[in-house]
Design goal:
With about 350 residues, the protein is α/β, with parallel strands linked by helices. It has 14 helices and 13 strands. The chain has helices at about 5-10, 35-45, 50, 60-70, 80-90, 110-115, 135-140, 160-170, 225-235, 240-255, 255-280, 300-310, 335-350, 355-360, and strands at about 25, 75-80, 100-105, 120-125, 145-150, 175-180, 200-205, 220, 280-285, 290-295, 315, 315-320, 330. The strands form 3 sheets. The chain has a 7-stranded mixed β-sheet with strand order 2-8-7-6-5-3-4, with helices on both faces. The protein has a 4-stranded antiparallel β-sheet with strand order 9-10-13-12, covered by helices on one side. A two-stranded parallel ribbon has the order 1-11. The longest helix has 24 residues, at about 255-280.
Length: about 350
């Protein structure tokens, strides 16, 4: 009988809890209010012929290359950052190779690596989820062909200094290094300008977060021109749909909307972190649009907190299953009005569950 190859059978299933998401969406790090009005206006202009034609990716890639100040051959539009990860794994990994990740981090890295038949080498983050530079260097071997680092990292919100990332690229010239900058806009520091200097460095971006286009599934990969030429051979010429391509120019043009949204999210993040200090709830300072906090020592406390927030119309994410995140919950931030409702519910649930200092006494 027909059977998948052994390596695929070992790949863990990823089941995001997307069903029944009614309430304020503080659970998946999405833009909590949606895309810019000019993007919606462009959507309304689309007609039957726009949907009947195969999508043409290259003109939009040229536009984005101009936006980033790079050559078009150094950029590839992808079906979300997920496809960028998948393409790199397909291009550089073979059975018997090793790929290195620092955990906890985005779950799909492991899945795409395993699907390519390679072995996942997991390095545990340091104290307070600090980046374990020396441990990473020590785990690089002659088998290492791919290293992926989220910066800022998900679910911790921690970041890696640019000099440390560049040192890893230099330490493993035979491995592709992907720096996943999905949350760049909330951090403001990037490495994509170094891709011309380092032939093994790639940077990924997404339009799913701050741009509010998660439903359109569009991201991009930036890398050295000669390497990107090879990666294009693996990519479908029609990987990004026509609707997404039609909206990207308006999304890029609406930087005033992006700047305003980011400003409000950063303010909300500051307010949440101060509230957690007041409640004596442990959290990790974040450079992304979310904050990871520890509700209790085990999954039970985290699950109870998530459920009570859900009953108040607030969707937050239990991250107890991630390495080192037992009893942790991640909360996405939105604009001021959303933060007002979030913090009111947080105070109420914390007191109900005995998380506040007064309740503990």
């Amino acid at each position: 009988m027909l059977k998948p190859r052994a390596g695929i059978q070992a790949v863990p299933a990823y089941h995001p809890p997307l069903a029944g998401r009614r309430g304020l969406r503080f659970d998946f790090n999405e833009n909590t209010v949606g895309c810019a009005p000019r993007v919606l206006a462009r959507l309304q202009q689309l007609g039957p012929e726009d949907l009947a034609r195969y999508p043409e990716r290259e003109p939009v890639e040229t536009l984005l290359a101009e936006h980033f100040g790079i050559a078009p051959e150094e950029l590839l539009l992808t079906n979300g950052v997920d496809e960028a990860i998948h393409l790199l794994c397909q291009t550089y990994l073979a059975p018997g190779d090793e790929a290195l990740i620092v955990v906890p981090t985005y779950s799909m890295y492991r899945i795409y690596i395993m699907a390519a038949g390679a072995e996942v080498v997991s390095v545990q983050a340091g104290k307070n989820f600090s980046f374990p530079l020396e441990d990473v260097r020590n785990r690089i071997s002659e088998k290492t062909r791919f290293i992926v680092i989220a910066n800022p990292n998900n679910p911790t919100g921690t970041v890696v200094p640019a000099d440390q990332l560049l040192s890893i690229a230099h330490s493993a010239p035979f491995a592709a290094l992907l720096v996943d900058e999905a949350y760049f806009e909330f951090y403001g520091q990037t490495l994509y300008r170094s891709c011309r200097e380092l032939p093994n460095l790639f940077v990924a971006r997404t339009f799913s977060k701050v741009y509010g286009l998660a439903g359109l599934r569009v991201g991009l990969l930036i890398g050295p021109g000669d390497q990107m030429q090879t990666i294009r051979r693996v990519s479908s010429p029609y990987n990004v749909n026509a609707v997404a391509l039609a909206c990207l120019s308006e999304a890029i043009a609406g930087q005033d909307y992006i700047e305003q949204y980011v400003s409000e999210v950063l303010e909300s993040r500051k307010r949440l972190e101060q509230t957690l200090r007041d409640l004596a709830i442990h959290f990790w300072p974040s450079q992304a649009n979310f904050v990871l906090m520890r509700i209790g020592p085990s999954k039970q406390e985290a699950a109870a907190f998530v459920e009570q927030m859900r009953r108040r119309g607030m969707l937050v994410r239990d991250r107890s299953g991630d390495p080192g995140c037992e009893g942790c919950v991640r909360i996405t931030l939105g604009p001021r009005s959303h933060a007002d409702r979030l913090l009111a519910a947080l105070n109420e649930v914390s007191e109900q569950l005995g998380l506040t200092p007064g309740a503990r006494r």
